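Margin note: ligand = 3,4-dihydroxyphenylalanine.
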Amino acid sequence: METIIKQHLAEVEKTAALNEHDLEQFRIKYLGKNGILNQLFEEFRALPSDQKRVAGQMLNQLKIAANEKYTSLKSEFEAKSTSATDNSDLSLNVSSANYGARHPMSLVRNEILQIFSHIGFTVEEGPEIEDDWHIFSALNFQADHPARDMQDTFFIEQQPDIALRTHTSSVQVRLMQNQKPPLRAIMPGRVYRNEAISARAHCFFHQVEGLYIYKKVSFADLKQTLLYFAKEMFSVDTRIRLRPSYFPFTEPSAEMDISCSICGGKGCNMCKKTGWVEILGCGMVDPNVLENCSIDSNEYSGFAFGMGIERITNLKYAVKDLRLFSENDIRFLKQFQNVI
Ligand code: DAH
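Resulting structure:
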């Protein structure tokens, strides 16, 4: 029996299967139910006890060798079949992955930044948690101005001087404090107001602020800059109109309408049949604001403007419900996959 086991051991060691069929034959031959190992174990049981020790050891050796050979050949074949060297058809279409897409808010913000960067505006950012001075006082809001009311502003309970900024105009103040004119910057960011959430209002939204401070900056410069923006953002035949308005930090102040981007000015539901839609607030920086930021208002003047990114997105892509922007419903977001 020992000679037979030795022969099998030698055979197992030199076995090299060429394919999976050979390997299966090897398994059946040695490890199968009626295979050599089981047969030998059967014979082993009938051996006289003085021969059992040596034969038993050899038999175990054969069993281990056959099992090891089988698992090592098997894993070799598995590795081969998952590598590209097998006969896979590499020309087949891949199953389509679920790609992500830029959020419409990011798309529109980037477009606004790009339009202004073409005329020399840099991009600046400021903190969302801000102090009262940067949000209100420096911007010429009087102490009892209604915007400071708890209705509109989220204050921090333990520190009534700190709030979530209600507009990006606070970044203007930081910029004017930290840099000297000429200043020409665009400032995007998230803002917060204590509003009930509905299709038309949200407790947070996004704005872009613009600021240009230099010598002899005029209202005509403001108007021309905004006309350029409206044509780039919507279409070359977009018209603008400025209506007198009031903001504490600009004098004079205005609100700007564009000819309705949906009906081209003929009148539709979007523009409530007027042909015009409001898109931003603007004006000449109030001399008080310049002085609050240590800029000499006799030497310098400037203009500022602020717009809501949701509002622009709304007009460009006809999104009627503001809540869609923060729900992250994949069916909504997917629609912006091919928008550059
Ligand atoms: N901060 C204003 C708001 O949140 C928007 C605004 C109006 C910004 C006029 C300006 C501006 O810079 O000049 O409603």
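Residues 41 and 233 are 86 Å apart (CA to CA).
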